[in-house]
Amino acid sequence: MSHKTNPISNRLPLTKQWRSRWYADNLIAYYILEDAAVRDLLSKRFGNNAGVERVEIQRNSQELMIMIHTSKPGIVIGRGGAGIKELRVQLERKLQSFRYRNFPLYVKSAADQKTIESMKLKIEIVEIKAPELHSSLVAQSIANQIERRIAYRRAIKQAIERTVQRNAKGIRVSISGRLNGADIARTEKFSEGTVPLSTLRNDIDYAHVDAHTTYGVIGIKVWIYRGDKLADALKPQGRRIVE
Fold first, then answer.
1. How many C-beta neighbours within 10 Å does residue 220 have?
2. Residue 140 and residue 225 in one domain
3. What is the DSSP letter of 8?
4. Domain assignment of residue 179, given as a range
5. How many domains does the chain have?
6. Predicted TM-score (pTM) of this structure
7. pLDDT digit string (tens) for 166-191?
8. Among 24, 30, 78, 137, which one is most buried in terms of CB atoms within 10 A?
9. Which residues of the chain have pLDDT under 50?
């Protein structure tokens, strides 16, 4: 049997970037766990309602930068910046408690502990101009509609239409679970255009999101083909640093 490879990891670093970027000689295990704790907090805080497409984490010896890519920056920032201030407090408390529990296990050197504790936390909000071209946001939109009891075929077809209107080369959607409350789970697939997964230079965006319904969990997978791109063409745009 053939094995499906995640299109994102298969294209690192040709047309995709690592979502955690740092170097640590003796702290790899600790940083991986800390990144997971940060992502878990952000996932619980925003869920599928704030249009968060992805979270990127960067570290150097002076700072820890968390970049939140979202199509709804107003929800993340809040009125008068109240949301981002509250988020900063939550992150600082989370990091403090995480370090208190895990330093004895993973960070033995006092110098390494001091370096980690001295890092300045920075939060950067990156606005996404075209959410229809990002598979995570498309999948979140479909999941939200299904949870509101909108017919899944209607939600998927409308999402495909909006993506094609944004000049995407192709889109594929797969949905599985107890669709419409059926007793037996099944999988249905919808597509428009082409989605060539084998060519690595193709810019393929992929995401998997779960919709929680009264009948159980419904899995939604979305692939979007945005054309041929190389790494130097994928430069972040529209950044705003929030101190």
1. 26
2. yes
3. T
4. 131-233
5. 2
6. 0.88
7. 999 999 999 999 999 999 999 999 99
8. 137
9. 1, 231-232, 234, 241
